[in-house]
Amino acid sequence: MLFNSVAFFAFFAVVYAIYVPASTRLQNLVLLLASYVFYGAWDWRFLGLLALSTLIDYRCAQAIEDDDPTRRRRWLLLSLISNLGILATFKYFNFFVASFAALCDALGLPVATTTLDIVLPVGISFYTFQTMGYTIDVYRGRMPASRDLTVFALYVAYFPQLVAGPIERATHLLPQLAADRHITYARLRDGAWLILLGLFKKVVVADNMARIVDPVFGGDGTYSGATALLAVYAFALQIYADFSGYTDIARGVSKLLGIELMRNFRRPYFATDPREFWQRWHISLSQWLRDYLYITLGGNRGGRWRQYRNLMLTMLLGGLWHGASWMYVIWGAIHGALLVLHRSWLHLVGERGLPGLMHHLPPLLRGLLLFHLVCLAWIFFRARTLEGAGTMLAAITTDLSFSPADWSTVTLMFVCAGPLLGLDLWEEQHERRHGAPAADALPFVFTAPAPMRGLLYALLLLYIAVVGAPAGVEFIYFQF
Amino acid sequence: MPTPEPDKTKAPRYRGLVWMLVWLLGLELAARQWWTPASVGPKLYAEVDPSFDYGFGYGIGYVRPQCEPDGDKRITCFNNQYRSIFRQSFERSKRPATLRSFTLGGSHAAGVTAYTTTAIRSLRANCGALRWEGINLAVRGQGSTRALVALEEALRHEPDLIILDFGGTNEFEDERDLAQRTKIHEGIWQYLLASRVLVIGRKLLSRRFAVLRTPPVTGEGERVASSFPENLTRWDRRLAANYRELIATARARKIPVVVVGRAYFRGLRPGTRALANHQRFLSLAGDGVLLFDAHAAFMAVARDQRSSLFLPDRNHYSREGHRIVGEGLAALLLRELPAARVCTPR
Questions:
Q1: Cα A45 to chain center, whole Å?
Q2: Cα separation, B195 vs B267, whole angstroms
Q3: Are B109 and B83 in contact (CB under 8 A)?
Q4: What is the pLDDT of residues B1-41, one digit of tens each?
Q5: Residues 252 to 311 of A: which have CB under 8 A from any B CB?
Q6: In B12-108, which residue ranges form alpha helices assigned H by DSSP?
């Protein structure tokens, strides 16, 4: 059930009609049932896995809180092993076995291996990280264990963010689920706007960019460097619009339900250094990795080299989180290397008093440089094979002559992504001027005279319908 | 229970949404009113047809060809993105002693230079007692399934004769395009595509950007599909069934039908599906239809000149080939068509 499908909106309309007049307890039951129906619509067989993960963490967290302090660690380990075990079995088992076999082969020691014939459960990486974060928070004493199974099960399975995040912190979402909801006019308005914006990002930008990206990355390598370069730019736009569009719809739907989800993106391509990029891209994952992995590994403590090692390890595992493939690991390694280089540069500047060369560059140039480094990493993320990525890079570095078809592609990219870039640019300027995050919508969207607002909404709807790609395409992050 | 937010603003909150609906409705009405051949020009109108059928860019549609009243007295069949017919006009009220024929077929019969034009010219020269009108609705790539729709259009305009020319080579296209068309109409799009603003907007956009158009057709898909015997069998069966339905529909209205059998070149190039329709063509004689055997007409030409009757693709007819088919067809009609009895001497 895709967010941009009629089926989802029909499903949500039914859920909403029951939800709004109900009491808080009943609302939670309705949402829980709806979440299980939503997840079951993908593959009902994995509902058991979801319920198992829920029960384990529900019980472990209570035991961590109630049990003798000396045994709390065991309960935490039980929770972590269970969650990571589920993830390892369903997502990484075949990958590790195949990699082990390849390594043995390379060493001249061929081994017979067995792989599991299993399907990857949708959203498994998201909800296992979310529940692990909860038990760790309880263990660290940051929050009490939940004593309401319905509320906790809803926290794990909450359908707007179940399959592709944001990976919500229990400290943020659980209290909201336990409390009364306030469905206000402002929330309805903002929610509807976010849904519309998310649909725009998905249908107009992401799905149309896919038409440029897929033939090149899926082709036989017979493309010019300019075509390849444009495909890389298009993929950068596609994955941003696809994922942030999903998050916007999830946040919008949640607002309609009276629940606030965290922002997952903050105009990442306006970042001017790698650290800032990760403060803006997939924020819920990068914060999770920082708080539960990087800091656990030692974080910034223990010397510079240990810090670099921690950064690299965190990004490698962050890459692997996206999928069981070495290409994701390479993608993570590139980002890890960028973070390490940036950090070491800062150390050099700080210790030896070197002039901050990078900081003398205009932000636009720094942003462009970083954007292209991020694009370089995207090639490995999207190409699926090293050979494919190599072909792509070879084409880009050897022949950059633009044909009329390439210029047409450039125009199409502006037609599709221009409004999104304009909105992001406005938000960025607003944030820099006022020092506070901009609202999700331009001010005049809600304050202009009614006929103007009506025209704006009508044009946005028409833009989605006219420029949007007709066929329903899955969100990219569903596969993770 | 949800707590309603205190009302802090006095202005009605949903006025923007009401205005949105007003704007959408206004734009839709404007599109319906003003997107006409007169206001946007026939060329643009032909390329950006406001109705939606198959694809946003090009393709053969499953809607009837566009033959519409053109002024008070005439009907014009427009060329549009779904029907690459040439523009043809005929009188709205058929005059007495008129014999109006409609041709349905694929590329062998399509175009102003096809044999139907020669046939009509020959008929006019040989039989002045009748006003011969020939409307050619054959389209390159059209198979027999789409011809069922085209026949509906023909039947609206008082036909006296239906000429059918389908060799089975376009059944793949019919099937493939129908699948794509069904996909495009899935889900919410079946409702959205009723909007002319949307359809016109998308078509204008697809004129500008090739990537937004229906994927270009290549021969590879057909070649692969033709390698499966079950596909060939299915296409053969469908062709035969459609032929019978076309004939039955016309005959139910007492309209004579002529089936034009394909002439074929013996040495077909690899990858071209065999035009094994001759047997099927002969089998249709049982329905009491007129048969014109183009292959036999070609065989009457001296062997060393036969290759000149085909284009280099060894499939479609050359100008000379069209002439032979057209004149042969005219002779058959003068000889066998009941309405042509007035054209004495025989």
A1: 25
A2: 50
A3: no
A4: 445 455 444 455 778 889 999 999 999 999 999 988 888 88
A5: 258
A6: 15-34, 37-40, 42-47
